[in-house]
Fold this protein.
Amino acid sequence: MMDYNRCVCQECGSHFATILDNDTDLLNEPCPKCGKKMLKLSGALSFSEVSSLFRGGG
């Protein structure tokens, strides 16, 4: 199973899930909401959080 991390945009404050595991790589990615390249890791997602990402929908 792939590990997911939580990240936050330091510009707009939005939270996202990512498979990236270091801030250096993450700083090259634009925020999906505001487009700024100011994302920072804020911890690993728990198993229940990851499960909720893929539940329902369709």
In short: Strands lie at 5-9, 15-18, 39-44. The first helix runs from residue 23 to 26. The longest strand covers residues 39-44. The radius of gyration is 12 Å.
